[in-house]
From TrEMBL:
<keyword id="KW-0256">Endoplasmic reticulum</keyword>
<dbReference type="InterPro" id="IPR045316">
    <property type="entry name" value="Msc2-like"/>
</dbReference>
<keyword id="KW-0472">Membrane</keyword>
<keyword id="KW-0406">Ion transport</keyword>
<dbReference type="InterPro" id="IPR002524">
    <property type="entry name" value="Cation_efflux"/>
</dbReference>
<dbReference type="GO" id="GO:0005789">
    <property type="term" value="C:endoplasmic reticulum membrane"/>
</dbReference>
<keyword id="KW-0813">Transport</keyword>
<comment type="function">
    <text>Functions as a zinc transporter.</text>
</comment>
<dbReference type="InterPro" id="IPR027469">
    <property type="entry name" value="Cation_efflux_TMD_sf"/>
</dbReference>
<feature type="transmembrane region" description="Helical">
    <location>
        <begin position="216"/>
        <end position="241"/>
    </location>
</feature>
<dbReference type="InterPro" id="IPR058533">
    <property type="entry name" value="Cation_efflux_TM"/>
</dbReference>
<dbReference type="GO" id="GO:0005794">
    <property type="term" value="C:Golgi apparatus"/>
</dbReference>
<feature type="transmembrane region" description="Helical">
    <location>
        <begin position="169"/>
        <end position="190"/>
    </location>
</feature>
<keyword id="KW-1133">Transmembrane helix</keyword>
<dbReference type="GO" id="GO:0031410">
    <property type="term" value="C:cytoplasmic vesicle"/>
</dbReference>
<feature type="compositionally biased region" description="Basic residues">
    <location>
        <begin position="319"/>
        <end position="333"/>
    </location>
</feature>
<feature type="region of interest" description="Disordered">
    <location>
        <begin position="313"/>
        <end position="374"/>
    </location>
</feature>
Amino acid sequence: MEKDRGLPFHDLQASDVKAQSGTSTPVTHCVEKSQPKHPSRASLWLMKSCESWPFLYAILRERDSRRIFYFMSLNFSFMLVQFLYGIATGSLGLLSDSVHMLFDCFALGVGLSAVVMSKWPPSARFPYGYGKVDTLAGFANGVSLLIISVEIIFEAFERLLSGSKLNRIGELFIVSTLGLIVNMVGILAFDHAHHHGHGHSHSHGDHHHNENLHGIYLHILADALGSVAVVGSTVLVHFFGWSGFDPIASCIIAVLIFVSAIPLVQSTAKTLLLAVPADVEYNLRDTLAGISTLRGVVGYTVPKFWLDDTNHEKDHGHDNHHHHHAHHNHNHNHKEPSSHAQDCHNYEHSHSHSHSHSHPHSHTHEQHEHHEQPTQQVLGVIHVIASRGADLADVQCRTVNYLRERDMDIVVQVEREGEGRCWCGGGNKSLS
């Protein structure tokens, strides 16, 4: 499938991306400043008070980030209470749960930053936007859950062998019960987003967008299970007098946390490694084979593909596409005429200002999602090698149109055979 793997996508310049692809994704994946969705009076007051703090204002403006921020504040406050009572009672379950809550605060902070960053507009270095920040945060949260689980298991065995005893069981029961209530608040707050991304969603884009919230949900669920373990072990210690129930319960919960975090780590790792499903890869192989048959094309190098996981609705991009054509219908090839083909917007201007020629149902995606097998747009970059006598603009536009017909938004770089001016050196390589 691949004849050469080159540098990462972000090494390309933004001007090259816009000029060479002729597609709308790097341009239209911008952030619209939507109005806050039904904020409370307290939220409105906070937003008004922090207008001079852009990052905090951005947090309070969006429902997801606002929800994370509020729960993180509640979680951190109760974490201090749990930690102090854990020291006073000598409970491993309470101490480990408070340390876990500290990591949860960190995880919530990472997830909060990811939610805000994922809505940033594209930049010169990241022309496709910051959609994978959500996935990266989900991966980080999943890995941290695995590490915490292993640490709790080691501490549980150490406490079990040492035979440490619990003190002030009554206060321990009260604090752990309050901790369970706090975590139940978090579960109720994030349960809808968790199920929306992993149970009720019918699009891959929603799935990847919510991997961040899924990681946060798992952290809160792990905390709730830890609180259940502390409450249960406290009751058992009170009636049977054996302190070993506490580390055993902690160990069981740690195993459950570890098992629940594995699917999250696997799914986010595949996304970050640009892995695509088997059916998509099969179609990509056919598409690459078709590129080699286009007129003027002798081969290709550096094919890199990934699925669009930015959770932007397709019709949003279509509605705004016509605003950007006027800004990119000039030639970007004046510096490197042999390594970068000119923009093919003018070439296609007579066809349409939208994706309608390749997406006949593009303006009714949501109406047809439940009637047809949903397809997620493929993004990527490819270096096409043109024959020595071919017109670079013609080769590029043929390739771009061919890819568009297959719902692929690909950065197409064109170079004549034998020139080898590109960083990947594709023109000098044998393509037989």
